[in-house]
């Protein structure tokens, strides 16, 4: 059942991410959720608030992966064009959802205006995605799920749809961090990778107490193989007699 | 001279970003540098440590934008394949750079091994990109610049190449944050956008003291127009009599 997991891509929409004004806070949350649900996140793209940027990316990603998750661009201002982009990509009209109109009136009363009601417009046939922070829902068309860009709202929307997503084998990871430099062990590490080609072995240098250290990660869907390969990695580090900082299993 | 700025894309390479193990810390730094240098960052992609993922993305981006900046995958382990990917994309062979070999021997002496020397291999014709943290350089082939993934090293490499990049008109931004909700002002805000179609007006909701607030940003390359449009945005917020939190000019 190797590589039989569903796949997904993330499309982050927003000028502010590309100008550097804002730092994305959504991708990592989505990535972790997908990993533990057994959905392989294969790619992320970040594009501007422009139909010419969003639509081709959306069409390419939705044809390639089981699911596409978008964030941003579902508010009431002129730069919020995700509904329009998704509708165009799927060749759908846009309708105004009366249940959402009513929800806005119930929550905001006399403050509701035409701008507010832009957030009640969706591509025809959408399944709406509620959240526990605001009235404005996200929406799902076929394999595309469009969430808000505000992290608290995005998380609530994603959490809500998780049980509806096909799940695959969870990826299990074990890691060891030590002061052994990558160059010291990379040939042996590669030999272990070659012995377990269906697992993913990664090496991540960083610094601790101003000294270089390396985290070696073994991950895969077959628990016994992950354990066996990781045992070899740990033995390899122990053989160097170099200090081990942490083992996470 | 509107829209005459050079353009760029960022390609972040690394399984760890897609599994959620690591949160990217490079895009925002690159984005801010480009904005102040007058280079328009149009797109970012995040792909896995796989040639089949890196090469097509690289070829698409380098054909489309003035510059492409990649991060990650230039170390000594088997999952570091950026040199191979760039060489393949450009149809180049890989050579071992003797000046880098010497630098490794000078720095590391007897600890240098074949793994270390993998970091002295580059596509033929590369311009090497030194950094002030480690011996291992990044490299530049035509319009593609490949940096390390470790943020301290990436920053040093990028800072080093900045003076060699074509620069355009800096994007000037002014912003006002208030407790006015987006729905309250989005029609007037859009009217200001329509009056200044060459500027970019963006609206970003967030929370402060558990209350919703909105930051309205006016940005563009024409200082006088940015000032004029921003004056209208400030007047619009003042008219609401709603509390202003901050004005940044």
List the helices and strands and how they pair.
Two copies of one chain form a homodimer.
Chain A lengths: L6 E7 L1 H5 L7 H11 L2 E8 L3 H14 L2 E5 L10 H9 L3 E3 L1 H11 L5 H4 L3 E3 L3 E3 L8 E4 L2 E4 L3 H11 L10 E7 L3 H14 L4 E9 L2 E10 L2 H18 L3 E5 L1
Parallel strand pairs in A: 1-2, 1-3, 3-8
Antiparallel strand pairs in A: 4-5, 6-7, 7-8, 9-11, 9-12, 10-11
Helix pairs in contact in A: 3-4, 8-9
Cα shape of chain A: elongated
Note the run of SSEs of chain A as H and E.
Answer: EHHEHEHEHHEEEEHEHEEHE
- Structural class of the helix and strand makeup of chain A? alpha/beta
Mean pLDDT of chain A, nearest integer?
95
Total E-strand runs of chain A = 12
As residue ranges, the low-confidence spans of chain A are: none
Spatial strand sequence of the major β-sheet of chain A: 2-1-3-8-7-6
Query: What radius of gyration of chain A results from the CA coordinates?
Result: 22 Å
Share in β-strands of chain A = 25-35%
CATH topology of the largest domain in chain A: Molybdenum Cofactor Biosythetic Enzyme, Chain A
Helix content of chain A: 25-40%
CATH architecture of the largest domain in chain A: 3-Layer(aba) Sandwich
Oligomer: homodimer
| Alpha carbon gap, first and last residue of chain A | 23 Å
CATH class of the largest domain in chain A: Alpha Beta
- What kind of sheet is the major sheet of chain A? 6 strands, mixed
């Amino acid at each position: 059942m190797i590589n039989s997991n569903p796949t997904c891509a993330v499309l982050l929409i927003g000028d502010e991410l590309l100008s550097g004004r804002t730092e994305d806070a959504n991708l990592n949350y989505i990535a972790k959720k997908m990993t533990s649900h057994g959905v392989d996140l294969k790619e992320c793209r970040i594009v501007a608030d422009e139909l010419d940027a969003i639509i081709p990316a959306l069409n390419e990603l939705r044809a390639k992966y089981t699911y596409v998750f978008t964030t941003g661009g579902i508010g009431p201002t002129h730069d919020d064009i995700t509904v329009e982009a998704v509708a165009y990509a799927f060749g759908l009209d846009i309708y105004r959802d009366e249940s959402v109109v009513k929800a806005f009136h119930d929550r905001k009363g006399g403050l509701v205006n035409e701008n507010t009601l832009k957030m009640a417009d969706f591509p025809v046939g959408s399944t709406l995605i509620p959240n526990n922070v605001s009235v404005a829902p996200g929406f799902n068309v076929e394999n595309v799920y469009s969430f808000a860009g505000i992290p608290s709202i995005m998380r609530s929307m994603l959490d809500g749809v998780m049980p509806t997503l096909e799940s695959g084998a969870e990826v299990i990871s074990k890691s060891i961090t030590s002061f052994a430099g990558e160059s010291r062990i990379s040939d042996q590490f590669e030999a272990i990778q070659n012995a377990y080609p269906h697992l993913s072995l990664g090496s991540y240098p960083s610094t601790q107490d101003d000294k270089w250290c390396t985290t070696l990660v073994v991950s895969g869907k077959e628990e016994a193989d992950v354990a066996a390969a990781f045992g070899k990695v740990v033995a390899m580090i122990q053989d160097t007699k170099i200090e081990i900082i942490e083992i996470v299993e």
